[in-house]
Amino acid sequence: MDAHEPRPGAAATASAVHHVGMSVADLDRALAFWRAFLGAPERWRRMLDRPYLAKHLGIPGVTIDAAFVDLPGGVVLELLDYKTPGKTPNSEATQNPGNVHLCLGVDDAEVAWRHAVACGARPVCPDGPVAIDGGPNLGARASYLRIHDGISLEFFEKPPRREGIGS
Question: Which of 145, 68, 81, 160 minimizes the C-alpha distance to 113?
Fold first, then answer.
């Protein structure tokens, strides 16, 4: 068996989420949203231009204006403004293959939604968070918003505890 072929029954070696990366058109604009929303500055920001990046990413001579933002719960958000010609934005349509979203757990979906809108997010549903009316998250509330670059940000408020379930 080739050393690079998967072995039946072999477990994945991932142990944690290291970071979530988002490509952005303008790092200053993206950071303005996250600073306002989180009420804290980025952990670091710098220009990345080391030779390994071209090989790692498959983009010859690439330079990236990058920042790390600490999200609640210990996950790091990496914002990347690639300084390359010919960049084209993705469609923000949620149903398109390749579209991803970042979901943040919140204590109050309405408060988070209002705050994000005040910070410049565009709500998908202008009425605010919606109640989940079935399935495993019955009673929860959630909302989708578009932030910088049409990126989807979701808020998820857990359902209230019901007596006899999980208590």
Answer: 145
Provide the CATH number for the domain around residue 69: 3.10.180.10
* pLDDT single digits (tens) 18-50: 899 999 999 999 999 999 999 999 999 999 999
Give the whole-angstrom CA distance, residue 32 versus residue 126: 22
- State both tokens at 104: 């943040």
Among all chains, which residue has been given the structure tokens 């998820």? 156
The rounded distance, in Å, linking the Cα atoms of 150 and 122 is 9
Domain assignment of residue 152, yes or no: yes
Under the banding of pLDDT at 50, 70 and 90, the label for residue 3 is low
Q: Which pLDDT belongs to residue 152? A: 94
Global pTM reads: 0.83
Residues near 46 by beta carbon (within 8 Å), at least 6 away in sequence:
66, 67
Tokens 């306002």 locate to 36
Quick check: is 11 in a domain? Answer: no
